[in-house]
Amino acid sequence: MRKNLVVAIDGYSSCGKSTLAKALAKKLGFIYIDSGAMYRAVTLYFIRNKVDMNNQDAINDALQHIELNFHSRDYESHILLNGEEVSEEIRQMPVSESVSEVSANKQVRHDMVKQQQRMGKSKNIVMDGRDIGTAVFEDAQVKFFMTADPKIRAERRHKELLSKGDKVTTLEEVFENLAHRDYADTTRKESPLVRAEDAIILDNTELTQEEQLDFAIEKVSPFLEKN
Which residues bind ATP (predicted)? Predict the structure, then answer.
């Protein structure tokens, strides 16, 4: 099998990008990198330290004190923020409500992209996010752009929150949060969410997780033996 094959998965919030990416990486024996978790971890640090998003000097200074690392168990990606496991905390609503603003910052994106590109230089990887196929790995061999009906996305996200013990956030709040994030992600100046011209559209509104994995494997398979 070739080395340095990059599968980029972009798309809207709560479309199941991470679910597909993890399953695909496990099936192929690739490394899974959760780029979204990186931006969420930065957001968590900013929230904890009350970093003013209107003060670029404060943002630049904060970034100098953030060290992110991943470790993996059973292809579940766990992120460490300055040595602390924060994988669960970064998925809560306070982070969800602020991550679009943080990730839209030019310096934040610059720092994260550099780290992501370093991770993909010499390994077979699956990486999901908002701009993987358009900014981080423009030359990725396989690109997917995931989408789904907004109501279905909200229901999936709300169900996920409930499973993690969140009994406060309502379905309506989740729907509004996703609508806000869609607008912010697609209209920001720095690397907005857009489909790369060569990305394969994957609408999973009516697909099971097994069906979307089969679809992805079918598209990736031709590249596995190429030199």
Answer: 11-19
